[in-house]
Write a structure and sequence with these properties.
Length: about 90
C-alpha cells in the first residue's frame, strides 16, 4: 500500500514583522524581520530560519540558524526568539 503524500508533507510557518506599522505589499527577507519555522514531521524537528533586516538596512542574519526538536518548542522559546530578532533589527 502506498503512503499518502499529504501525510508526509512538511509544514512552514513564517512570522513577518514590522517596526513601523503594517507591512504594505509583499513581505521580503531583504526588507522585513522574520521568523520561519519549517517542521519535519518524520524527524519531529523544526528548522529555524530568521532575518533581522529592516527596510533594507542593518541586520546580520538571514537564513537557517538552528534546529529545534518539537518537544522543546513552547511559547516562551518562540517569544524569546522573536524579541531577539526585533532587538537586532532595531539597532
Amino acid at each position: 500500500m502506498a503512503e499518502n503524500p499529504r501525510l508526509m508533507q512538511d509544514h512552514r510557518l513564517i512570522l513577518w514583522m514590522s517596526l513601523e506599522g503594517e507591512i504594505v505589499g509583499t513581505a521580503r527577507v531583504d526588507r522585513h524581520p522574520y521568523l520561519q519555522l519549517d517542521a519535519n514531521v518524520t524527524q519531529r524537528a523544526v528548522t529555524v530560519s530568521e532575518g533581522d533586516v529592516w527596510a533594507g538596512r542593518g541586520g546580520n542574519r538571514s537564513g537557517p540558524v538552528a534546529e529545534w526538536q518539537l518537544s522543546e518548542i513552547n511559547t516562551a522559546k518562540v517569544t524569546e526568539e522573536i524579541l531577539a530578532i526585533l532587538h537586532r533589527s532595531f539597532q
